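TASK: fixed-backbone design
INPUT:
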């Protein structure tokens, strides 16, 4: 499945690059709590990158739908946390992203429930 492989690779790449930046650059300019939030976000991005890459090679019914839930969930959950972590450095008010984070989390949960159902079914 091309979209799962594409986003899996992209998420893994971004996780590595942003993780290096967080360790060497952001930690010097951001509050500790923001840097910790970035770490959490990057962990979720990498977990879902690996999940998408594995899912792309499995023979699982409905993997396109599952992939879409994982991709959308990661974008909304992890990337809203990332942007909110930079709030102190950005002149724009990003507080509107706060309610988006749990929506992304719900999409991730749905994606994992679908995976669970497929594994139980098979």
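OUTPUT:
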């Amino acid at each position: 499945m091309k979209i799962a492989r594409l986003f899996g690779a992209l998420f893994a790449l971004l996780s590595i690059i942003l993780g290096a930046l967080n360790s060497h650059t952001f930690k010097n300019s951001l509050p500790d709590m923001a840097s910790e939030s970035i770490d959490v976000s990057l962990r979720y991005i990498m977990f879902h990158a690996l999940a998408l890459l594995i899912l792309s090679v499995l023979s699982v019914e409905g993997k396109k739908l599952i992939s879409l839930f994982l991709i959308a969930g990661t974008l909304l959950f992890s990337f809203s946390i990332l942007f909110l972590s930079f709030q102190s450095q950005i002149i724009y008010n990003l507080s509107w992203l706060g309610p988006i984070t749990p929506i992304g989390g719900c999409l991730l949960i749905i994606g994992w429930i679908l995976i669970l159902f497929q594994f139980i079914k098979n």
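COMMENT: Residues 36 and 106 are 22 Å apart (CA to CA).
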